[in-house]
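Hey everyone, long-time lurker, first post.

I ran two proteins through the pipeline my lab uses and got sequence/structure pairs for each. Pasting them in order. The first:
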Amino acid sequence: GGGSVSIISDAAQGILGVAQDAVSFTSEDSTFVYTKNGLNFTTTLGDISFTQNGDLQNSHYHSEGSLLLQAFEPDGIQFTGLGDFVGAAQRDILFDATESFSIGASSDANSATEPTIEFNAGDDTNA
């Protein structure tokens, strides 16, 4: 029809959807998922991907508690991007490794001054 569609269950009842093939949701406007007791995405085969295809758009992950990224494979967790990576915290940032911890920079420059790796403490004016 031309209006909204609502799927509502009675109190203490769940809603279950089962498909033998793909399930697809498409929206021309924002899509909002709200839950009081957690949200889980689980797959036994393949990857779970969150893709943002808009030009110059951002993806935001917010938590009022902790945000945990955990990988059990030897590859670990990788952050890659074409621009900068910035880690900012109101308190501490901790990187901990049981084997090795490396900081490196790659550059195509021929100069011994490039790339630059800096470690600063305090504010920028006194670094």
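...and the second, right after it:
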Amino acid sequence: YTAYSLSNWYTERSLSNWYTSRSLSNWYTVHSLSNWYTLRSLSNWYTVWSLSNWYTSRSLSNWYTVHSLSNWYTLRLLSNWYTAQSLSNWYTVWSLSNWYTARSLSNWYTVRSLSNWYTARSLSNWYTVHSLSNWYTVRSLSNWYTARSLSNWYTVRSLSNWYTARSLSNWYTVHSLSNLYTVRSLSNWYTARSLSNWYTVHSLSNWYTVRSLSNWYTARSLSNWYTVHSLSNWYTVRSLSNWYTARSLSNWYTARSLSNWYTARSLSNWYTVRSLSNWYTAWSLSNWYTARSLSNWYTARSLSNWYTARSLSNWYTARSLSNWYTARSLSNWCTSRSLSNWYTARSLSNWYTVHSLSNWYTVRSLSNWYTARSLSNWYTVHSLSNWYTVRSLSNWYTARSLSNWYTARSLSNWYTARSLSNWYTVRSLSNWYTAWSLSNWYTVRSLSNWYTARSLSNWYTARSLSNWYTARSLSNWYTARSLSNWYTSRSLSNWYTAQSLSNWYTACSLSNWYTARSLRLGSD
């Protein structure tokens, strides 16, 4: 790239194009190999010309006109009015294929295209949008918000952190054409109904019962233990010291909220996320970042702004210098840069970009786009196949994919998540946490992440039809047994040991060192 400045001429050339801009008598010209672009500022006239079209905008008496070869667009600014052919508060923009009309009369605003027309009305805090197929109405009055389409109607009321459709004597109902879901809070009764099943939760003497047409689900709270029984499986939730654990037949998952630490574990992996000052790390301790799978160890250490990660097959090194972060493996280079809140990581096969600007975060791979946005408590993740949206508004959290939508609500320590097929509810009351779905119960647990049926002398047992799982907590020993394997973990002087029938796994955390040994892998 070459830049030349002489008599208000500026020239930049790349291998394929050259660009010239000139500032002389308010003329600015940019030339590329394919097009000419000219911008002139003279008497409030601005002109841009390309090979195929020319566009002119004029600022004279608040008139702005843009002309192309095929279309003309006129915009007038007068007392905050924008119009082409302004007559009785009508505003029209015409193109060859579509015409769009906006009218402002008594707080009505209408936009029409060839296929659809949309109307928004602002009258007494009512806002309505109409398309050919659906009606959508949103009303903001005393914290009421209502949206209606032809097939469904949804109403949300925000009043003292309450959200409801048809709020009458503590009834809360969400109605769609296919399903009815009702939650009633009266004398500690909570009921949810769908077309096929009834679900009832009854709180009496720390017992919680959920019944569907086919199954009974019971949850009991005793000494912060929560047990759910279905016909086929037992699932237990325990809340102690901000630990929440869920286990299914194949996996168990643990989430811990302590000093902004969040941990999730499956049978094969440990995942730890820490949120501190908008930083998210895996196993963050003294600038160490560790992610472990059964086959690989990944460790990053911060020493003089150097970060190194090693797996069984590769070495990864990252260096932080002047907001540049570079990681190299045997086959790939990965670079991330922190400049104006842009973070980019590149491997040979994929591009990963994280952009933090106005709370937008985007990660892109070759196949998927993932975007997270934090604006007014909205968070959205988009992949090629699904949209996932999480919204935090007055203790509401909602996640939606193409097929399912999940909602979490925090109201009087109640947390509910819904998908199209299942309901998941978690209640936190005096350290009580309960979760259920239509077919299964999943645990959110506290200590050592086990589902428990009974708590006696630090013994915790979870039973399914096929397996028995027993966990014992005594002197920092934790033991789990299934029909086929024994698993033991011990936490003593930063040593952690897990044994299965075939392998031993030992992890030592001492002075920020982590060691894992597998008899099968035969390596330390």
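Reply from user beta_strand_b:
Welcome! Quick read of the second one: Residues 178-483 form one domain. Residues 1-524 have pLDDT under 50 and may be disordered.
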